[in-house]
Specification:
With about 650 residues, the protein is α+β, with helices and mostly antiparallel strands. Helices cover about 20% and strands about 35% of the residues. The longest helix is centred in the middle third of the chain and has 16 residues, at about 415-430.
């Protein structure tokens, strides 16, 4: 055989091999070329990530183990990378529309599985898929996030060391070197500081699969997943369902499907963090169609303030006079809703179809309708699920607009399936939802936009009880950078009793916030929260009508959001536009500071600014504030002084020609 013919045959044989079979690694690059994902082409399966040539994520093993012991970690072939551009409507999100672009590579694995990687300018994501019809069970998923050196990490650990998968997904963030992070699993999100870059670990499109926890190691974070429940028990007080026994696998798979996205959000500046859209962008699209019937807004809340009215001619509590008073207050201040929290049905009964004798729900709904105020009902997840169609049908027909659903306190596969089931049924009856006692968002509000808000945060309720050494202002300037990457958040701000660091104490029936009055007000702008509470009593708000009308007038959905400045754990400034009006708000930790706000987000022109800011004595009296109006010439910057634990809100309105005359 001639040499040329031999070389030709060799080339033809190489071309006939599956793409990727002759290379030891596959590379996928972000559209801007800065981020490179390298994926092993041979077993065991692993990946690594670099940015501008520096290692962000060291080689990290990933894979699946089936219940029969089969390990899925062997690539067979790879697709050619392709570019994906998506335009996504985002109702009730931080902006009404998002655009994304990425490069995608899919590996075919053994056993009918696939592995897809995407590289965005703002992060990396991967997920497994299953292509066969045969059912199976997954015993374990290996997801590792390995790092060089000993980077700083921010982790919210489970509050239940004995049964770490059973808790409310509410804790402060521990900040430490990875090597000192302990061994208690943490729930998402988690942030790792690699040099000057932050990598935040998230998940999206969590459906019919358990949520991911992270267990710290000396050089890595390893995924852990709650096992599939085998049996349940119910608590006596609320009839809340708890896992009693668990299977030895994590997930049941009925047939072909995709699994959740594992996301590494990459940010070079802290101000990019609250604006990262990957969780929303990677979630399944809208399944309910028309969203015009969903009305976001504010809600006068009863539970936090313990129905603690004063100066009224009736005994306050879970009764008709109290809730009519809440409705009157909401109507006077343009607040769209009141919520009837725990107690409108007997929680011990587990029956939300029977209202307590002290309430006439039909009369209350009619009274609210006359005033332009609608009603939302609180319930427990499994209580609603047990009576799902009947409860949705009954209360929708009665005129209730939504449910605040509480105490899931788990994210195993059956818990996640319950969350989807409730969203779907509620949408059929035009009911919106606010999920409490719930895991951090994973894009479910894109799939079901009637899910307006989530808890999954160490929110205002935490100031009602011990311990005394909790640091809420520090948390308040930490979690917006991390938690807002996941989605909307129901922090429930609005406290009217406010205390300095030295004066604060936990008080259950007359709770007091940490930090200033304006720190509370700023939450209404800083947080993505299309259904947000005014947590204090109507009589407390009525004593200061100018302040109350100002916070009640702040929009809950926006046309544009930017973060002019901020550093995680220190302070944050958020600017949001509604129509032609901008709202700018800032929060600080316990350190007082002057914050300079660049106004480059404003268009040319002159503006009128209504300023709600810490008063001159707010460092000693946290309730001190000033509310004034000033002229703002075009261009330049604004500097605002924040007291310890302070905040501010600016309402910036563009002046017209007529205003200058």
């Amino acid at each position: 055989m001639k040499k040329a013919s031999f070389l030709l045959l060799i080339c033809m044989a190489l071309l006939a091999l599956p793409l990727g079979a002759v290379t030891k690694a596959h590379r996928l690059t972000s559209p801007d070329g800065r981020t490179v994902v390298t994926i092993a082409a041979e077993a065991p399966l692993s990946y690594s990530v670099t940015r501008d040539g520096s290692v962000l994520v060291a080689p990290s093993p990933i894979g699946l183990t089936l219940a029969d012991g089969t390990v899925i970690d062997r690539p067979v072939k790879a697709s050619r990378p392709r570019i994906i551009k998506e335009e996504t409507d985002a109702p009730f999100y931080r902006q009404p529309h998002i655009s994304t672009v990425c490069n995608e590579l899919t590996l075919t694995l053994t056993g009918g599985f696939t592995l897809t990687f995407r590289a965005y300018d703002e992060g990396v994501a991967y997920r497994f898929g299953y292509t066969r019809k045969a059912p199976l069970a997954i015993a374990a998923e290996q997801a590792t996030f390995a790092f060089e050196g000993d980077p700083k990490v921010w982790l919210a650990h489970s509050t239940n060391e004995k049964s770490p998968f059973a808790m409310a997904f509410q804790n402060l963030y521990d900040e430490s070197p990875l090597s000192d992070a302990g061994s208690v699993p943490a729930f998402l999100p988690a942030t790792v500081e690699v040099g000057s870059t932050k990598v935040t670990i998230l998940e999206s499109n969590l459906e019919a699969y358990p949520g991911m926890f992270l267990t710290p190691g000396k050089t890595c974070l390893k995924a852990a997943f709650p096992p599939y429940p085998k049996s349940f028990r119910k608590s006596a007080y609320r009839q809340q369902m708890h896992v009693a026994e668990a299977e030895d696998f994590i997930c049941r798979v009925d047939g072909a499907r995709s699994f959740p996205w594992r996301i590494l959000a990459i940010t070079d500046d802290d101000t990019q963090m609250p604006l990262n859209n990957l969780v929303y962008a990677l979630a399944s699209p809208n399944r309910i169609g028309d969203t015009s019937w969903i009305r976001p807004g504010k809600v006068a809340w009863d539970w936090w303030n313990a129905w603690n009215l004063k100066g009224v001619p009736f005994k306050a509590g879970i009764n008709m006079p109290t809730y009519k008073y809440y409705i009157d207050f909401a109507a006077k201040n343009g607040i769209e809703y009141i919520v009837l929290d725990e107690g409108w049905y007997d929680p011990k009964s587990g029956d939300m179809l029977t209202v307590i004798p002290d309430l006439n729900l039909e009369e209350l709904i009619a009274y609210g309708r006359q005033k332009g105020v609608d009603i939302v009902l609180w319930t427990v997840f499994n209580v609603l699920d047990d009576q799902l169609d009947e409860a949705c049908r009954k209360y929708s027909a009665m005129g209730v607009k939504g449910f605040k659903v509480d105490f899931l306190d788990r994210n195993d596969q059956t818990g996640v399936e319950m969350a989807y089931r409730i969203c779907e049924k509620a949408a059929q009856y035009h009911l919106f939802l606010d999920y409490h006692g719930f895991y951090s968002p994973t894009g479910l509000n894109r799939t079901y936009p009637n899910l307006l808000n989530y808890e999954g945060v160490f929110g205002m309720e935490e100031v009602k009880w011990k311990p005394e050494d909790k640091d809420m202002p520090h948390y308040d300037v930490t979690f917006p950078f991390m938690r807002l990457m996941c989605g909307n958040v129901d922090y429930t701000p609005g406290a009217m009793r406010n205390a300095t660091r030295a004066d604060w104490r936990p008080i259950y029936y007359s709770p007091v916030s940490q930090g200033t009055r304006c720190h509370q007000a700023a939450m209404y702008v800083v947080l993505d929260s299309p259904f947000t509470m005014l947590c204090d009593t109507p009589t407390s708000y009525e004593a200061e009508p100018d302040y109350t009308q100002f916070i009640a007038s702040i929009p809950t959905v926006w046309d544009e959001t930017v973060i002019p400045s901020g550093r995680m754990g220190e302070y944050i400034v958020t600017a949001r536009r509604k129509g032609d009006t901008w709202y700018v708000a800032g929060l600080t930790d316990w350190r007082e500071r002057d914050v300079t706000i660049p106004l480059s987000f404003l268009s040319e022109g002159d503006y009128l600014v209504k300023c709600l800011a810490d008063g001159i004595n707010a460092a000693r009296n946290a309730e001190d504030y000033r509310l004034d109006t000033q002229f703002l010439p075009k261009g330049g910057t604004l500097t605002i002084h924040l007291a310890p634990g302070g905040g501010f809100v600016l309402q910036i309105s563009k002046l017209t020609v007529a205003d200058h005359l």
